[in-house]
Amino acid sequence: MNELLEFNPKRLTLARRRRGLTKTKLAELVGVEVRSITGYESEEYKPDPERLIQLAEKLHFPVQFFFGDDLDEISPDIVSFRSMSKMTAGQRDTALGAGAIALLLHQWVDVRFDLPRAELPDLSQETSPEAAAETLRRLWGLGELPVKNMIHLLEAKGIRVFSLSIDTVQVDAFSMWHAETPFVFMNTKKSCERSRFDAAHELGHLVLHRHAGARGPEVEREANAFASALLMPRASVLANAPHMATVDQLVRFKVFWTVSVAALAYRLRDVGLVSDWHYRNLCIEIAKRGYHKREPEEAPRETSQVLAKIFAALREEAVTKLDIADALNVHVEELDQLVFGLALTGLSSRNRVAVTSTRRPQLRVVSSHNDVKKG
Fold it and tell me: 12, 100, 307, 366: least buried by Cβ within 10 Å?
């Protein structure tokens, strides 16, 4: 009875949205009237133990998840999705729900490890997104060299990066500030090149639109322009890219900046190395070859350096995946989807032990100088 009194209806709402379900759909799955789900979520009445077990099974959360304090949820008003017009409400809720679970995991990690503090300037007053990208490169000492690993760069500057692992092109990535900490959530089902552009795009939102809110087509264009300039600096492109390039040349040269063929073609037009007419022909040829759906010469996928270090340290303390999942009252699969699908693979779910250590390991993250390619 005590457990029923502690039932938290907001956690039920979060779990339903995490699975992208409407109240009607959840009611169908559980075999109750919609008004029952509405009653549970509005705290009008609580589900009995048997019904709660049914809800937990259909939502794929442990029963314990539905008890406890309110969780930090992510409002759609503070994030920006690039493909909002094509995204369904269910897809948006699924992404935001994953973000809420990521915040829960971050809180668990943050009390145990000293993570890098945020070092992001406010570049909202720069004259253009390209000027902002140039300023950030100067402040971070990146010079004109290509960025070797975007995720490592973000993490070195104190940005928390998590994987969304959502198998749809409509959900690419989103970012936000939460309690003075910047977060980026990335769809890791996309190619490495497109994920890098997404990471740079979200970095643009964090430094350009922190105080203005990141919504609408204009801020999305600004973030795209910032990402293009950050990944492909004007001077670097002018010095290295061919004039009036063919698609075959784009495939060869894109490797230098680790960007997509389409992104490089756009940047060449942006800096004046191809005409509008030539750019249109490149786009037609790129579409014919199917490069929008299948990136040629795809680079190896980038993963988190911070999460890898965290889980290596936990492994030394014999902390298991189940220990973490139990502490958060979620299933192990939920964590796997947030950590790029591999950072937890070294943590066995066997031989569980209690987490007793109180020390806070300090993580060393490589500096941005190590995250640029040598030309």
Answer: 366
Running DSSP on this structure, what letter comes out for residue 356?
-
Pairwise CA distance, residues 201 & 222, whole Å: 9
Q: What is the mean pLDDT of the chain?
A: 87
Distances (CA, A) of 70 to 6, 100, 348, 351: 11, 11, 30, 31
Q: Are 162 and 338 in contact (CB under 8 A)?
A: yes
Overall average pLDDT of the 39-66 stretch = 95
> Is pLDDT of 226 > 90?
yes
| pLDDT tens sequence across 284-314 | 999 999 998 899 999 998 988 898 889 889 9
Average pLDDT over residues 152-168: 86
Helix (H, G, I), strand (E, B) or coil at 38: helix
| Rounded Cα gap, residues 256 and 310, in angstroms | 31
In angstroms, the CA 370 to CA 361 distance is: 22
How far apart are alpha carbons 375 and 29 in whole angstroms? 56
The pairing of beta strand 160-163 with beta strand 173-178 = unpaired
Nearest to 122 by CA among 204, 230, 207, 205: 207
Please, are residues 236 and 146 in contact by the beta-carbon 8 Å criterion? yes
Neighbouring CB atoms inside 10 A of 177's CB total 17
Longest dimension (CA), the chain: 74
d(C-alpha 68, C-alpha 99), whole Å: 19
SS3 177: strand
**Phi first, then psi: what are they for 186, rounded to 5°?**
-120, 140
Beta strands 181-186 and 160-163, pairing class? parallel
Q: Burial, 295: exposed, middle or buried (Cβ in 10 Å; 0-12, 13-18, 19+)?
A: buried
| Start-to-end CA span in the chain (Å) | 66
Please name every residue paired with 160 in a beta bridge, in sequence order, or none if there are none: 183
pLDDT at 347 over 50: no
Query: Is residue 146 within 8 Å of residue 373, measured between CB atoms?
Result: yes
- Would you say 273 and 241 are in contact if contact means Cβ atoms under 8 Å apart? yes
